[in-house]
Automatic annotation (TrEMBL):
This is D-mannonate oxidoreductase. The keyword Oxidoreductase applies. Keywords: Oxidoreductase. It comes from the Bacteria. One of its GO terms (biological process) is carbohydrate metabolic process. InterPro entries: NAD(P)-bd_dom_sf (IPR036291), SDR_fam (IPR002347). Belongs to the short-chain dehydrogenases/reductases (SDR) family. It holds the Pfam family adh_short_C2. One of its GO terms (molecular function) is oxidoreductase activity, acting on the CH-OH group of donors, NAD or NADP as acceptor. It comes from Pullulanibacillus pueri.
Length: 253
């Protein structure tokens, strides 16, 4: 049911902590992996790990905010793998700049990477999925801050709320083509982009609000990614915002 042999998974932001972990999860189930990112040094490290699962993997360099670069990468991927069946969008940047000090340059940068980049990716890769006529699965990575905004990450929270909205909109838009669109809402997984804001007091506050009283391990996102990627396992699942957060979203006081 979870076998992805013969499927091609495109991981945008595939060199990130969470993106690379989910890429490896899909590779374990036999998917061919196309990594899309800017940092070729990081990509090389991820590639070597993925190769240990005996699948094809290749990196395609592109900035997610550059539509021409993404279109070029998409064309190269389809020419290389002959298909695009799964799209996992995991680009992300963060900032702790207080709202009163926020510049529009910083706002634009975060929105461009976290939201515009995902919109462009969905637009570009969905065209290939539609042309193939075999359906597909789009998985967007959101955040717990998308529903109840977290302190100190104003722009990031706004960008992730946008991810939830476009996910549900596109689920309706692409349903006639049998392309499912869902979002994963991770809890606190200490990725590179948020380690800098994890002070001792903030960690304590997170633990008080997380029933499982621990951070998530990136590998714990592999299961939900595999499930959503599998046409057999999640064939009637679309437009969903799925939490993997140790209970964080179930807590109030």
């Amino acid at each position: 049911m979870f076998d992805l042999t013969g499927k091609t998974a495109v991981i945008v932001g595939g060199t990130s902590t969470l993106g690379s972990a989910m890429a490896m999860g899909l590779a374990k189930q036999g998917a061919t992996i196309a990594l899309v990112g800017r940092n070729l040094e990081k990509a090389s490290e991820v590639e070597q790990k993925i190769k240990t699962f005996g699948v094809e993997v290749r990196t395609f360099q592109a900035d997610v905010t550059d539509d021409r670069a993404l279109k070029s990468a998409a064309d190269e991927i389809v020419a290389w793998a002959d298909s695009c069946d799964i799209l996992l969008n995991a680009p992300g940047v963060n900032s702790t700049t207080p709202f009163s000090e926020l510049t529009m340059d910083e706002w634009d940068h975060i929105m461009n990477v976290n939201l515009k980049g995902v919109v462009l990716s969905c637009q570009i890769f969905s065209k290939h999925m539609i042309e193939q006529g075999n359906g597909g699965s789009i998985i967007n990575i959101s955040s717990v801050s998308s529903t109840t905004p977290l302190s100190k990450v104003f722009t990031y929270s706004a960008s992730k709320a946008g991810i939830n909205s476009i996910t549900q909109y596109l689920a309706r838009e692409f349903a006639p083509y049998n392309i499912r669109v869902n979002a994963v809402i991770p809890g606190f997984f200490p990725a590179e982009q948020n380690r800098k804001i994890l002070s001792e007091d903030r960690v304590a506050a997170i633990m008080r609000h997380t029933p499982m009283e621990r951070f998530g391990d990136p590998e714990e996102l592999q299961g939900v990614a595999i499930w959503l990627a599998s046409k057999k396992a999640s064939s009637f699942v679309t437009g969903e915002l799925i939490r993997v957060d140790g209970g964080f979203g179930a807590m109030t006081i």
